[in-house]
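Quick one, T. Sequence first:
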Amino acid sequence: MIPGFSTGRRRFDDLSEQDILALAISSEEDDARIYRHFAHQLRADFPASAKVFEGMAEEEDTHRNQLIALHKNRFGQMIPLIRREHVAGFYARQPVWLTENLGLDRIRSEAQHMERSAEKFYRKAAARSQDADTRALLGDLAAAEAAHSDRAIDLEQEHLEGGARDSEDDTAKRQFLLTWVQPGLAGLMDGSVSTLAPIFAIAFATQNTETTFLVGLAASVGAGISMGFTEAASDDGELSGRGSPLKRGVAAGVMTTIGGLGHALPYLIPSFWTATILAMVVVFVELWAIVWIQNRFMNTPFLRATFQVVLGGALVFAAGALIGGG
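Structure tokens:
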């Protein structure tokens, strides 16, 4: 540590047994709140998983009450105010606002990490302790965290039996498609197809790669901004269930820009025909990539997707080339 400066955090080795017990109590309280937040967040779309986290919160409450009773017996009614952020090296929890947009699998994974990290910390702390009572206390806390993990597995088996997990996984997949894939695909189609005509019209009209690139860049960025705002403003997601308008707007705007830039970037090459041939190859790849995404994620029949995207893109490209070449 630099002389004259302090992190304001206490070393774990400097904590008394009372401090450690108080730290365990506050940690149990925090984890119970986090699990209840997860349950509230999941209740509408994933009721079975919400019950899992409600049960885990009740387990944390039970252990907290046991720890409080132990503290009263050993140290009295007054519990020191000490939290995990006050102790250097103590395992951290993500603020709840950083978990607002986590998917179901990520939330389950976060809960498992919470239990494992707590157990690991207590076991390491117990191994470093030289005091027999402190060592026993830390070992008991590690065992309690391990028991939490076992109980979490039991609760998951209890509430996610049969088709409940499959149903919730299907709901999560559907939400991902509605929030990210669908607007992203619409943006990619719009950016790839709508910019074909202006870019290739300018290319064949001027045969100037620098001018063509600037027009393509402006068209792509402009289309991305427009598409992003349009998607975000079109639906707040409350009734349709399509998810956050911000996420959908970002997905649509970014993919629209990428779709246009794909065949604009080759015009950074000074040679006109080299750049144009490369841009045509990129267009070919873009259109078939869109067909694959539609078929893979949106269940659009392959022939229908080919007709809609490849034929439509070819007609737009031809129109731009004819207008520019004329």
